[in-house]
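User: Sorry, folds how?
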Amino acid sequence: MYFSGAGTEIAKAEEDVGVWRTFFSDEAKRGVTFAYLGGAEPSLAPDRIRACHDHIPMGCIFTNGTRKIPSDIRYRIHVSLWGDDENSKTYRGASVNRKAMLNYSGDDRAVFVMTLNALNIGEISTVARACEDHGLPLVFSLFSPTLDYNKRMTDVHFDETNYFRFSSAQKDMRLDDDLLLQARDAIFEAAAVSPETIRISPAFINWVTEKGSLYTLDESGVAKDCGNRLTRRHVHFNADLTRNSEKCCSPNIDCKDCRPYAMSLATYFSRRRQMPKDWEDVWHHWCDIFGPV
């Protein structure tokens, strides 16, 4: 992921597609059957996506949707949304919703993912209608601040960079306990209205919006019970094909506030023995949005 670290790996990204093909072939031999492809923006490197697709049978591509990934790439495609058309520009610097929805309208690979924050919960119904109009399923993630975001939001001297454009004490995107419950209720209400469009697992939504942190932290503030931690088998590679040695695929997220959907699903499954009545429902949800098409 581009924002894991300073992004220096992008400047020295491997450009030789032959090297990428060898890399993915070796990963397949290692036993890898599922790949997560992120960015910056992976659709800008379709040759690398195809090299992965040729060797690893299943996968998911995380994209902003502005460039359509060729239809013969049969990976799941998760398209990020940060709000409705009117407010998306504020959250992410440009509104690309309509273009993304036109690109993937009716595409059985596509799942649109709306990241909920403290400012956009009221936009769920508008986003759901737009997805429904384009024949696109909608799921939800929860805004999870980075360590830098939390630090800046407690500093009276805000550094308004391009990445930290508008947040302030009056425009804080973070979800406190009350807002988590508000987000949960809004998701359930929207799902009741648009059950064919909104794909959720009630058990997972209830768990991921629980009050307080979802994790037990060590003395450094790193989660000790995270199902998304990098291990000998669960490996994250940089764009120069070196192994990333950070804690997880998004090491800049503050563990105590971590609730993104993909990472949280991994943690939920790692605790499935604590959730004997519900975990199969959540597993079916994972298969619905990540499984083969």
Remarks:
- DSSP finds eleven helices and five strands in the chain.
- Strands lie at 34-37, 58-63, 76-81, 110-116, 138-142.
- The mean pLDDT is 90.
